[in-house]
Amino acid sequence: MTKTEMTTRILFVDDEPKVLSGLRRMLRAYRSEWTMEFCEGPEQALAIMSQTPYDVVITDMRMPVMDGADLLTEIRELYPGTIRIVLSGQSEQERILRAVGPAHQYLSKPCDPEFLRATIRRVSLLSQRIQKPEMKALVSRMDSLPSLPSIYFELLEELKSEDASVDCVGKLISKDVSMTAKVLQVVNSSFFGLPVHINDAQHAAALLGLNTLKPLVLTASIFRQLEDSRVSAAYLEQVFSHSLEVGGIAKALAKAEGLGKESADNAFIGGALHDVGKVVLGDNFGQEYVALCQDSEAQGNSTSELERKQFGATHADVGGFLLGLWGLPQEIIEAVAYHHEPDTGIDEGFSTLSAVYVANLLCSEKAKSEGQESLIDEGYLARLGLQDRVEAWRQIAEELAAPV
Questions:
Q1: Helix segments in 27-148, DSSP class H
Q2: What are phi and psi of 219, to 5 degrees?
Q3: Three-state secondary structure of 259-280
Q4: 354 CB contacts (<8 Å, ≥6 apart)?
Q5: Tens of pLDDT along 242-277?
Q6: Is residue 282 part of a domain?
Q7: Collapsing DSSP states into helix, strand and coil, what is residue 55?
Q8: CA distance linking residue 293 with residue 54, whole number of Å
C-alpha cells in the first residue's frame, strides 16, 4: 500500500500566502498521517480537485471573487463525499449564516493542531464504518433533516411573533429530533467560542438568542419542512416518539448509576438522536427503507443486518457519521454510532453509551411479548460488573412510562 493510499488527503485553501506558510509549518508533524496540499484561492482549489480527489477541504471564509461558503457549496455538488470545514478568523454573522449549509464544521483561527487532528480523525474513523462510497457521499451532502410539520410551523409562527420567547423556541426545538441535531451543530461550532460543548437544545437556543435564531431559521433555513422529504409524517412521528422516550430513560439511568450532570444530559441527547440514521435513510430511500423496517419486524430479523446488506451501513453507522461531521460532542456521537454494539466502546464502567444501549432495549422489550428473554447482552453487563442492575433499570423505565 502506498503512502497516498494510507493517509488522509487534505486540501487547505486560503488567499494569503503567509497564512498557508504558517499552516505548513504548524502541521509539519502530521505529514506521516496526512497528505497535504496548500493552494492560494478557490479557483486553484477547484482546479486541483478536478485532477486529484481529496478527503477533506479546509478553507478560509473571506476571499475575493469566491468566498469559503461559495467554494464549499461548489465542492458539495461536485464532490459530495468530501468533508468540508471552514477555518477562519472572520466572525461576521452574515458570513457564518452562509456557511451553515455547505460547511460541516466551522473552526476558528488560530486552531490548535491537535484539536484539528482529533476532529479529522474522529470523522474519518466513523466514515470507515460505511462500506459504500455512494452512501458516504449521500450523508456528507446532507445539511438538514426533515422536521415534524406541526412543530416546524409552530416554530415559524413563534419566531415571526413580535413577542417571541426564546424559552418557547427552545422547548419547540427540543421536541423535534432533526431540529435538535441541527441546532447543536450550530451552537457547538467554534464561531461561538464556547468553552464547553452544549448538549441541551433549550440551553442552545438560549445561548444563540432570538437575534441569531431568527435569521438562522427564517433566512439560512437550518430546518427543513417534511414536504421536501420522501419520508411520511407518520414514520417520522414514530421514530421521534421512540427516540425521545429512549432519551428520557437513558438520562434517568445515567443519574441512577451516578453519572454527572453533563453525562446525564449527553445520555438524553444520545438517546434522542440514537435513531437519527433512520431519519437519514428514510429521507433518502422513502418507502424502500420503510419496507425494510417492516420486513425486519415481521420476520424477526435484525434491522441492522438488513441495512448493512442493502445499503452498506446500518442506521447507527449513518447517524454516527452525520453527527461526527456536524461536530457534536464525542460522548453523543459514540452513543449513536455504537448503540447496537456497546462493546465497541472503550468504557470500563456504566457510561453515556451504556445508558442509551440499555434504554433502547428496555423500550424494545416493552413492545415484545411478555415473558420473552431480556434483549440486553449479559456478556457486556458482566464486563462492566452490572449484571445485577437490570431489574432496577427495568423498574426505572416502567416508572417513567406510568401515567402521572
A1: 42-49, 68-78, 93-99, 113-127, 133-141
A2: -110, -55
A3: CCHHHHHHHHHHHHHCCHHHHH
A4: 253, 257, 342, 347, 384, 386
A5: 999 999 999 999 999 999 999 999 999 999 999 999
A6: yes
A7: coil
A8: 35
Q: What is the pTM of this model?
A: 0.91
Packed helices 352-367 and 261-273: angle between N→C axes, nearest 10 degrees:
40
Average pLDDT over residues 375-398: 91
Give the range of the structural domain holding residue 91, as residue numbers without chain letter: 3-128
Handedness of CA 82, 88, 90, 93 (dihedral sign): positive
Same domain assignment for residues 157 and 256: no
Largest Cα–Cα distance of the chain, in whole Å? Answer: 69
199 and 283 inside one domain = no
Query: Backbone phi, then psi, for 38, in 5-degree steps?
Result: -120, 125
Please list, residue by residue across 365-392, b when 16 or more beta carbons sit within 10 angstroms of its beta carbon and e when fewer do. beeeeeeeeeebbeebbeebebeebbee
What backbone torsions phi and psi does residue 76 show, to the nearest 5 degrees? -60, -40
Burial class (CB within 10 angstroms; exposed 0-12, middle 13-18, buried 19+) of 235: buried
CA dihedral of residues 332, 333, 339, 342 (deg, nearest 10): -100
Distance CA 339, CA 271 (A): 9
Residue 333 has pLDDT above 50, yes or no: yes
- Which residues lie closer than 8 Å to 275 by C-beta, 6 or more apart? 177, 239, 242, 243, 246, 315, 319
Number of domains forming the structure of the chain: 3
Residue 62's φ and ψ, nearest 5 degrees, are -90, 110
- Cell 484539528 locates to 116
What mean pLDDT value characterizes the chain? 90
Q: DSSP string covering 349-393, please?
A: S--HHHHHHHHHHHHHHHHSPTTPPP-S-HHHHHHHT-TT-HHHH
Are 143 and 101 spatial neighbours (Cβ–Cβ below 8 Å)? yes
